[in-house]
Design a protein that fits this description.
145 residues, mainly alpha
Length: 145
């Protein structure tokens, strides 16, 4: 067995990370990695049961929202960029991230208010506000797992 130096091990780890980010992941692999923690598969099954007219109504509503919210989404990004560019310390940087998070939260809330009446018309349950906490159930993964 050959021992490799720490430098080579780090290089190997870096190369592996780059290759993993460059090589596309199959949907089956992605499903295994990400699981169904966001309810995406369930939502897709529900929507696949809609009639073509209902699917068209959902499509038109989503497209309309994307067009309506486009400038707002750009504004959030530009505001974040200006804030980060002006941040002089970690606290200011963290404040920028918090501002962006709040702006995105407000945008999601407005989206729910816009899309839920359409979802109810086509027979889908409303999108509910996130319960808070971490997306992975509140568990932090340790460095060695």
């Amino acid at each position: 067995m050959t021992l490799i130096s720490r430098g080579r091990a780090g290089l190997l780890a870096s190369a592996t990370a780059v290759m993993a980010s460059v090589i596309p992941m199959d949907s089956v692999q992605a499903q295994y990695v990400y699981g169904d923690s966001y309810g995406y598969d369930q939502a897709m099954r529900r929507e696949s049961r809609l009639t073509p007219q209902q699917q068209e109504e959902m499509f038109r509503a989503r497209k309309s929202w994307k067009r309506r919210s486009f400038n707002r989404r750009i504004s959030i990004l530009e505001t974040e960029k200006r804030c980060i560019d002006g941040a002089r310390n970690a606290s200011a940087f963290k404040s920028c991230l918090k501002q962006r998070k709040e702006a995105r939260k407000a945008l999601r809330s407005d989206y729910r208010a816009y899309i839920n009446p359409v979802r109810q018309r086509v027979g889908l349950p409303p999108i509910e506000k996130r319960k808070g906490g971490r997306r992975d159930g509140g568990r932090r993964r340790s460095a060695n797992s």
